[in-house]
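From the pipeline queue, job 12 of 40. The input is one protein chain; the requested action is below.

Action: predict structure.
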Amino acid sequence: MAGNMKAVKLRIKSVQSTMQITKAMELVASSKLRRAKERSEKCRPYFDELYSTLVNIANSNTDFSSIYAKDNVNEKVCYVVIAGDRGLAGGYNSNLFKCFEADAKGKEYSVLPIGKKAVEYFKHKNAEILTEAFGEIAPIAVADSFAISNLICEEYKKGAFGCVSLVYTEFINILSQVPHAVATLPLADIKHSKAGKGRSSAAAAASESAEVKAGGVKNIILYEPEHHTLRT
């Protein structure tokens, strides 16, 4: 009997120690989540404004001389898929991959995975991966964004693919994160895209469409110099 009581007391003590550890982990996770939420809310206006600008250009532009503006006969799609570095995140990664699968169904595609889970997922599927250089999303900075865009643009101009889509998760609140797949290139695809891009983008696109109907079609792209011209 005494032995059983001792075992029960040791078990209680062990559980209490585990509770202290998990409580500390919960505090750390809450702090990280709060910082991530703040960063997301600060970045959202920039994303909305940039994407709404692309939508406006796509809806208003009549000069399709730019390779990035006109329709591409190459139907292969390059998906830029932004996932997490770790698991144990509920449906964050799995919902994102379901969104990707739904959009990519029946299409020929390659992927540029960002985040460890994205790299692992597409390696397991034996998908064509453009690069694994951005396999961890945590240390990615603005300079990496320039490197990613330059890589995509170079491959696009070479004809490696004819469309570019971004697959990401929109943060609504702590309990709700919605995955999206949105077209980014060519601009003609943005014009016909029906995917959700955020409230401000949709409002801006609707407003611009009304302006075009009221005042006639506008030509926004006036001059696009080559990179060597800018350097000289």
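Job complete. The first helix runs from residue 2 to 60.
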